[in-house]
């Protein structure tokens, strides 16, 4: 009876300001206040340790609370959540916090500037034009690379859904680019496009007689990057679509054949419903990846010929110029755009949910 | 076993353990490890080889030089990440001279005035360094009396040329017929070249595959000239600065901060004219130059592949052109100074942007390590080792070494070394270096790829620099 009453009393959450080892609400409140004060008042290295200690305090309060309230399931997954917190959530929150400060990593100087970094990267006379230009370039690359990859990947999937001689070996060959490192592929394409040594220029020079330089204009440089990216990632789209295509029951096609349904109608009524979800998934993955496009650009053009993408620009700002907090602000703007796009895709992809 | 015996055994075991630990400490007390971050290329490989084979510390300690060879394209990123992350891994860093401001202000690079003042022998060696190299590699603020670095490998731009092409009788005759002047062929004639002469060589040697070149049909398309015109790092700036200085223009002068301005200087008519001159030569270079990716490694590769008659590049890359395993032109090379611009008095003005690197000490290096590091640097800058380094393909900025008549015999380009040193300047050393550089490189890329004229380019650079430097207080 006494045990029951102990358990019941333990299950009652303490009031917000009640001092108790398991009062996680109080721990969160203290943690937030102390962390904010530390970030404003202490140097970066000091505030790092104070915020770390506060995070540990909150975690300990949660653990004690869970133990007292017999949440053993929660305690069992706590180590995994702790790792997730340390490896993902904490750095994410830390970088979000940094975006409100003026912090230069090489000078270790820090001061609170509120939303100034966001305003600066979007509107400043000196900083903003390069950011906007890189953002516009990224949008252009996203549209071009994703469109090409979706079309080529889809066509390849339609081809490989059928049986034909050497299909297995050709499939391996088509999938190979996806398995190569981006740098290796990039270096391969630099030589492929090279106007002096490159085979592409050599063949066109031989046929047309005039000098052909692929990457000497923005259009050529963009086309070169889009082609290299599509070469690597169209097989990824193909794989997803192929998975959908092979899952279509054959009897549906047989029934359609008996009813003499046209090829287009067969595709639209039978095939497409099976691959629509996978196509959206491929579109989503490739769009998110397109926003991270940097490695291929670095290897092929170094951002020259107006091919600077926002991810490469971000690397230059945060890593080379050590403007960490400005870089964090740009990262969160990209994150915001990607989240909006993702939701837009999901909204378009799920008409049933929308109707509901 | 009684309690007393047990205690005795524990005490004896503890004593034995303590004496082992103490013994080990004593035995290794003279071990000093110096950890160094260096770019991976011949001048640093040679240094490590010399150290391993020859260095014997005067202290009698066992000194280990642990070297991280980092590929050039990743070098700045890796060093920057190491320093700013606070890992304190390196005692020595082979730093580009332009990084001094950023890393001195960040508290990473150690001032060495106290070490020089405490050691007259060291000071004497230090003062024997050519003043242009000393200012570029050691001083921050630039040209002040605050010293930070020692030359590891000093470098200048020189003109690489192919004798088999430029000295060919038919080519000489045709060049004379076309330009009414002799096609430069010897080292001395290369030394006397202006950029206009260089342009003529570029124009003259544009040959299509199959056209006659030095008495034979060309195996492939051939080009007259090459120099750096790449967007990444500092590649176009290092060449364009030379044009600007030679033609009477200037870059923003950090030694006059905060009174000197960027606007009106960076985009002065002379600077614009200099950029126009630079751009006018791009047309005669291999087509890669038009893509904005002609970095120093590409122009070196094109030259060694036999696609170019003359190429301006750093001495640090020249060694591979002499090696038949890596060069198709190894047996027909001649070297001269980088072309200049004729001044009002008719003499050649030869200003150029210095290359090469100093090594610097980091602030967390311990006293024991500093002592050994100073000994190592004195050994490295000593006459004997500097001569050996030059003989193995390196260079020396020590006056008494490069003035020795033997010096010019080590490598065919060494004759251009000492006269070039007098004409070296450096780009800014301020902490905002990378921000200034990347914006400038972006602008030069627009000009090189033909999407922007020289005036707009210099105006944009000047406006950006004025605004940024004003924001950080380096311009009033």
From TrEMBL, chain A:
InterPro entries tied to this protein: MetI-like, MetI-like_sf
Family: Belongs to the binding-protein-dependent transport system permease family.
Pfam family, one: BPD_transp_1
CDD domains: TM_PBP2
Ranges where the ABC transmembrane type-1 domain occurs: 135-345
Domain of life of the organism encoding this protein: Bacteria
Full protein name: Multiple sugar transport system permease protein
Annotated membrane topology: Multi-pass membrane protein
Transmembrane segments: 21-42, 48-67, 74-94, 134-157, 169-193, 222-247, 267-285, 329-348
Protein's UniProt keywords contain Transport: yes
PANTHER family in UniProt: BLR7065 PROTEIN, SPERMIDINE_PUTRESCINE TRANSPORT SYSTEM PERMEASE PROTEIN
Keyword set includes DNA-binding: no
Location(s), subcellular: Cell membrane
UniProt keywords, alphabetically: Cell membrane, Membrane, Sugar transport, Transmembrane, Transmembrane helix, Transport
From TrEMBL, chain B:
Keyword Membrane attached: no
Xref: PANTHER family: ABC TRANSPORTER PERIPLASMIC-BINDING PROTEIN YCJN-RELATED, ARABINOSE-BINDING PROTEIN-RELATED
Record's signal peptide: 1-29
Hydrolase in keyword set: no
SUPFAM superfamilies per UniProt: Periplasmic binding protein-like II (SSF53850)
Organismal lineage: Bacteria, Pseudomonadati, Pseudomonadota, Alphaproteobacteria, Hyphomicrobiales
Subcellular location: Periplasm
Protein's organism: Bradyrhizobium algeriense
Homology family: Belongs to the bacterial solute-binding protein 1 family.
Protein name: Multiple sugar transport system substrate-binding protein
Source taxon at top rank: Bacteria
Keywords, alphabetical: Periplasm, Signal, Sugar transport, Transport
